[in-house]
Structure formats: structure tokens, C-alpha cells
Design brief:
about 15% strand, 22 strands, 24 helices, about 625 residues, 8-stranded mixed beta sheet, alpha/beta, 6-stranded parallel beta sheet
């Protein structure tokens, strides 16, 4: 009987394997058929629709190849350089009669990325082409883009709610004490507040002062940019006394938005569609409110960036981790291999390092820095281009640059290091569990998360942290040509925005990735007008491309609320999910860290699927 059951299980396994292989072959053939059409997609006259139902990021994560088979939700992310290139192409493309922004489910972006996209939209508007924006409700990030439009529409049941940066952080000291967990924190830098939630019940005075300065600078930039793009918007009153303005409109947020000059028109999607149709033409035999449109993905495919050139561009995006990692996460070994392979296989004349990372592992950051230094050793000019965030480990990998470009809104600095190691001797003692054993040396069994760290191990780890910090200061001093004492003053883990960072010598110039590529060409004695980049990165697999294509064609919009108040509540949920994820990463990540946890809330609103699932589990555990 056992033999029969075993044979049956074997046959079932073979059957399942054959079905999986058949499905993979089917989808492979489907993908080949979809991509075998000659030429680029046919683009007809209409409005280029930027339906940004996800965050704008530096490097989108790769979609899991079997996501479409497993039913896993495929989140959409939009590459910054693709969005800007599409908008700039639309400016001179006679087929594009208007640009439409659909911001109902916009996933946010770092301030620098928002500014770059908004500036591209302003260029379209200045060329004479209309830019129209629509959303049920706008919050800060979406409105930063909408302000660049020539017409802003909002649903009559929606409105605009602006809150500015900032908010509360979670502090776990009370919970940790109740659980009896001992948190061993090793750090250097009085502003390195990433570890404060584990050691305090509130924000330290140093962290509060630094946050107020950072948020204040970024908020002033936001207000100035909105005022310049849309002078008639009375934003200051809306920010300081929103309840009075809404009450004056009878509690109608949409009407209050209109009366304050924040928006131009109130209307539903059908009314908005008819307005666009007046400009670009209506679609015949389609539902009311339809207009001739050019889909974003098709337009990006039809307008690719220039072909491979001699300026290598390597992207360091997301958390910096040891070993290998896929797109959207900066694996130290992966990035280093891209650089070294590019030096070996391509005729590179210069290297641009595009950094969009809050840091992470010190070892991985150093691995990347050494690979960049190898390019420098071979005589290649090194130009660093900072994106939305280039802090802590992100600044570490920027140090080899001959020149560093940033945006006034870039979040950088955070020059400091730390390590966190929990131990559970008190937690276990509460349930009667203790530990004991023979130890022949002071470090035997250390670091001991069961019995606790001894004084010798703690002192050694702290000494190591301090040595890494001194090295960080030394490398910054050498790279930026500043005295070590001065570097220590502006370091201490403090986060700076790009404008101040330029004043204190942490960056050299303001500029975009294109500006950095042109500067690299000049330094390599190439014609900047003719120089083209070659991106040193992994090309998506066919299965991943197919999964992404299926996701792009899927009209399901998910459960993200679109009204302003619901949107604000959803964004706060994302903050909680990110905080839960940060705790998990801090507890599971070993080694010395150069990481800026406080940078995360200033970036894209949407969080990773793993962080969202973790929050769901925690809320379910407490019956919420």
C-alpha cells in the first residue's frame, strides 16, 4: 500500500511539473508573439496620459516572474528618467496635443523627483501645449505635480488637503522594557536618530532640532515651487487655517479648493474627459467622456532613450545590502560587478554614479566604493548624480566622485554609523529560562543574545563602530577637501537637504542626471551634445517583462482610496507599515550600518508588499 501511495505521489508531482512547464512555454510563446510585431507601437494623435497609479522611483523593482501565475498583486512603479523623457518628448511631438495627469492613485516620490517631473511639465506648458490634471483628492505630492498643469480639476466630492512634511514616529522603549528585551545600541553621532525608537520614548532634542531644520527647508522649497508654478493658488492660508477656509465654504472641501485658487474646475471624470476631448478630439463609439489618448507605456516604448554610448551610468538605488540583489535594492556584489564588467567589456570613457539610496550595510557600501575607485584608477572621470536621497551609505558610495551633482531637494548627509543587537536574558528569566556554561575567554559565546552581552564584547563592538566612523570622516575629508574637524561638525549623523549640503561643501552643483552625463563627457573630452549614456544594469527577464505587461494591461486599481481624507488615512497606514518593516530590518540585519531610517517617510508613499503584509499580521494579532 505504501508503494502505491508513493507511486501516486510521484505521478502527481510529475503531472504538476508538466503543467508548470506547459504554462511557462505558453506564456513564453505569448510574450514572443507580443514582442514580435515589427517596429515600435503605432502612436496616433491624442493626449499623452500619465496615469501614475504608483510611485515614481529611480529604479523599479523587478516583477517576480511567476506573479501572474500565483495571483500576486503586481504593484506599478515608474522610473523617473522614463517619465521625464516621455514628457520632454511630448513637448516637441506633433502627435501629442496635450498631456493629461491622472493622479488619483499617485504613489508619491522624493521631493527632488517631484521637482524634476514638475519642471518637465512646465516646459510642456511653456511650449504652448495644455497640461491638464485630474484627481478625486490631492495631497502634497500629487499637488506638487498638479501645480505645473495649466488646468487642475478635482471631483466635486473630493478636494485638496495639504499638510506639509512631518508627523509622529513610533518609539518602542516602553514595549521593549515590558517584554524585558535588552537593546544594545552602538552608535556615533548625536543626530543619528535611527536608533532612538529603541532607546527612548520620545524624540531627542538634537533629533528634533535637525528634523525641524530639514522639514522646514524642504517645505519652503515646496511652497516656493507651487507659488512659482501657480501664483494664484493661495496656499499659505490653506496650510495655516484649513478649517476656517473649509467652514467658509460650508464644509465643502472641493469648493474651498476652488475659491482659494488651488484648483480651476470642479467636475467628475466624464466632464473632465469631455474637456480633454475638446482639445484632442473624442473617441467615437466609446463611453461618455472618452478622448483620443496615448498610453504612457506605449509612448515610452515608441520613444526609447538614445542607444548605448561611452558614458557608463550605474545606479545605486534602494537599501544597500550585502551580496547580490535585484533592481530596486543595491546589492554590494551586484553593483560592483556591473561596474567591473562594464570596465572590462565596454569602451567606457567616463562613469556616472547615480545614487538614490538611504544607505545600509557599511561593508556593501565599501564594496561599491572600491569598484568605483577601480574605474578612477583606470583614468575614467567619475561624476556622481544624487537623486531623491543619497544619505549615509548612499553618501559613502558617492565619495570617489570628482564632482557631485544634487538637487536642492535631495536628502543627503547622515554621516554616521550604528549597530543594534537585542538580547533576551530578562525576557527568558520571566518565564523561568536561564543560561549558563563554560567560557574560557571573554568573547566565548559572544555576542550572546540569550544570556546577554558582557562588558568586554560591548566595549569591543563600540570601539569598532567608532573606528568605522573615524574612517567615514577621513574619507569625506579626503574627497571633499575639508578638515576632519569640520567634517565631524557637519556629520554626527545629521541629515541635510541639497541646498544646505551645497553650502557646507557636501555637494558641488545642482543638476539632473542629464547634467551629470554631459559633465562626464566634458571631462572625458567628448562632445556633450553627442555623448550618450550606457546603463550598467540587469535587463529584465522575459518572464518578468511579461508579468509587468500583464500588470500594466490590468485595469484593476487596487484598494487605494482616492478622496483626500481617505488618502491621508491611507498614507498614515503606509507610515505604520514602513515603521513595522524598519523594526524587522533592524532586528534581522547584522553588521555595522550606515543607514538613514528617517529619510524614508520623505519619499514614495507606497511601501513594499512585505512591509504591508507585516502590518496586516500585526493588526490582526491585536484585533484591529
Amino acid at each position: 500500500m505504501k508503494l502505491v501511495r508513493g507511486a501516486w505521489k510521484l505521478l502527481v508531482g510529475i503531472k504538476d511539473a508538466l503543467v508548470l512547464v506547459a504554462m511557462l512555454l505558453f506564456f513564453a510563446l505569448l510574450f514572443a508573439a507580443l514582442n514580435s510585431r515589427p517596429g515600435t507601437p503605432s502612436i496616433k494623435d491624442g493626449a499623452l496620459v500619465l496615469d501614475l497609479d504608483g510611485p515614481i522611483v529611480e529604479q523599479p523593482e523587478e516583477v517576480p516572474p511567476l506573479a501572474f501565475v500565483s495571483g500576486q498583486q503586481i504593484g506599478r512603479q515608474y522610473r523617473l528618467r522614463d517619465v521625464v523623457h516621455a514628457i520632454d518628448s511630448a513637448r516637441t511631438d506633433t502627435r501629442v496635443k496635450a498631456v493629461v495627469l491622472d493622479l488619483d492613485r499617485f504613489g508619491g516620490a522624493y521631493p527632488a523627483a517631484l521637482g524634476e517631473v514638475a519642471e518637465a511639465l512646465v516646459r510642456v506648458r511653456q511650449s504652448g501645449k495644455p497640461v491638464l490634471a485630474y484627481a478625486t483628492g490631492y495631497t502634497d505630492g500629487a499637488y506638487r505635480l498638479a501645480a505645473a498643469a495649466s488646468e487642475i480639476w478635482v471631483d466635486p466630492l473630493g478636494g485638496v488637503v495639504l499638510s506639509g512634511p512631518g508627523g509622529n514616529r513610533l518609539y518602542y522603549k516602553g514595549l521593549i522594557d515590558k517584554l524585558g528585551v535588552t537593546t544594545h545600541v552602538f552608535r556615533v553621532g548625536k543626530f543619528k536618530s535611527a536608533v532612538e525608537p529603541y532607546t527612548r520614548a520620545d524624540e531627542s532634542p538634537e533629533s528634533r532640532a535637525a528634523s525641524q531644520a530639514l522639514y522646514g527647508s524642504l517645505f519652503e522649497q515646496w511652497k516656493n515651487a507651487v507659488a512659482q508654478a501657480r501664483p494664484k493658488a493661495r496656499v499659505d492660508g490653506w496650510l495655516t487655517q484649513p478649517s476656517r477656509i473649509v467652514a467658509a465654504a460650508g464644509g465643502d472641501i472641493a469648493k474651498a479648493s476652488l475659491s482659494s485658487g488651488i484648483v480651476d474646475k470642479l467636475g467628475d471624470r466624464i466632464s473632465f474627459g469631455r474637456r480633454v476631448a475638446e482639445i484632442v478630439g473624442a473617441e467615437e463609439d466609446k463611453p461618455a467622456g472618452s478622448f483620443k489618448q496615448i498610453r504612457y507605456q506605449a509612448y515610452v516604448q515608441a520613444n526609447p532613450a538614445p542607444g548605448e554610448g561611452e558614458i557608463g551610468v550605474v545606479t545605486v538605488a534602494g537599501e544597500i545590502v550585502d551580496g547580490k540583489a535585484g533592481p530596486g535594492t543595491a546589492g554590494g556584489d551586484t553593483i560592483a560587478k556591473f561596474i567591473l564588467d562594464g570596465l572590462a567589456e565596454k569602451k567606457l570613457k567616463a562613469l556616472v554614479v547615480r545614487v538614490a539610496s538611504p544607505g545600509g550595510s557599511v561593508l556593501a557600501s565599501e564594496r561599491i566604493r572600491l569598484a568605483v575607485l577601480e574605474a578612477k584608477r583606470r583614468g575614467l572621470p567619475i561624476v556622481v548624480s544624487m537623486g531623491g536621497v543619497a544619505a549615509s551609505g548612499g553618501y559613502w558610495v558617492s565619495l570617489p566622485g570628482d564632482v557631485i551633482f544634487a538637487d536642492p531637494g535631495t536628502i543627503t548627509g547622515s554621516i554616521g554609523v550604528f549597530g543594534v543587537l537585542p538580547s533576551f536574558e530578562n525576557s527568558l528569566a520571566k518565564i523561568g529560562v536561564t543560561s549558563d556554561g563554560v567560557k574560557l575567554t571573554p568573547l566565548a559565546g559572544q555576542p550572546d543574545i540569550i544570556g546577554g552581552l558582557n562588558e568586554e564584547a560591548g566595549a569591543m563592538i563600540q570601539s569598532s563602530i567608532e573606528q568605522v566612523y573615524r574612517r567615514f570622516l577621513s574619507e569625506v575629508s579626503r574627497s571633499r577637501r575639508l578638515p576632519v574637524a569640520r567634517v565631524d561638525e557637519i556629520a554626527q549623523g545629521r541629515v541635510w537637504e541639497g541646498g544646505t549640503a551645497r553650502q557646507i561643501g557636501l555637494v558641488d552643483r545642482f543638476g539632473t542626471l542629464d547634467d551629470a552625463v554631459q559633465e562626464a563627457a566634458r571631462r572625458a573630452k567628448l562632445d556633450p551634445a553627442k555623448a550618450k549614456p550606457v546603463y550598467l544594469e540587469k535587463k529584465p527577464s522575459w518572464a518578468s517583462q511579461l508579468a509587468q505587461q500583464i500588470g500594466n494591461d490590468d485595469d484593476e486599481s487596487g484598494s487605494v482610496p482616492t478622496d483626500a481624507l481617505g488618502r491621508m488615512a491611507w498614507e498614515q497606514r503606509q507610515v505604520l507599515a514602513r515603521a513595522a518593516g524598519d523594526v524587522r530590518r533592524m532586528a534581522t540585519t547584522g553588521g555595522i550600518q550606515a543607514r538613514c531610517l528617517e529619510c524614508g517617510p520623505l519619499g514614495p508613499t507606497q511601501v513594499t508588499a512585505g512591509d504591508a503584509r507585516l502590518l496586516d499580521l500585526l493588526l490582526a494579532r491585536f484585533g484591529l
